Amino acid sequence: MSQKFQELIQSERPVLIDFFATWCQPCKVQSSVLHTVKENIGEKARIVKIDVDQFPQIAAQYGVRGVPTLAIFKKGQLLWKESGVHDVNTLTSLLNQYA
Predict the structure, then answer these.
(1) Distance (Å) of CA 14 to CA 20, 40, 61
(2) Residue 14 contacts residue 95 (beta carbons within 8 Å)
(3) What is the per-residue DSSP string for 46-99?
(4) Which residues are catalytic?
(5) Closest-CA residue to 19 (of 39, 44, 48, 57)
(6) Residue 24 CA from chain centroid, whole number
(7) Peptide bond preceding 26: is omega within 30 degrees of 0, i.e. cis?
(8) Which of 2-6, 20-24, 65-69 is predicted with the least confidence, judged by mean pLDDT?
(9) Rounded to 10 degrees, what is the CA torsion of 12, 85, 36, 50?
(10) What is the C-alpha separation between 89 and 54, in angstroms, rounded?
């Protein structure tokens, strides 16, 4: 997965990574927000969910200490990262900014 993850974040379009856990209630809220964000941005960016319990090494590599944590990558660069639940407008405008 780590190799695949590296390829994923090398993308020319921004990739929003949602680090989540199945037991995390706020993550479920964030997930529904991300569905709307995806509708808003269409093909301008990708949204990918990473389960921190299944891929702890990736979470550790990017300093994810709490869930949900969102990170935006483009061409392998970490452009933005924040923990907690974020709203549709914030995430849509961030992805548009980096697109």
Answers:
(1) 19, 14, 19
(2) yes
(3) EEEEEETTT-HHHHHHTT--SSSEEEEEETTEEEEEEES---HHHHHHHHHHH-
(4) 24, 27
(5) 48
(6) 16
(7) no
(8) 2-6
(9) 50
(10) 29
Tokens of 78: 């970490």
Tally the residues of the chain.
99
97, amino acid identity: Q
d(CA 18, CA 24): 12
Cα–Cα distance between 93 and 66 in angstroms, integer? 23
2: helix, strand or coil: helix
pTM metric for this prediction: 0.95
pLDDT digit string, tens, across residues 27-38: 999 999 999 999
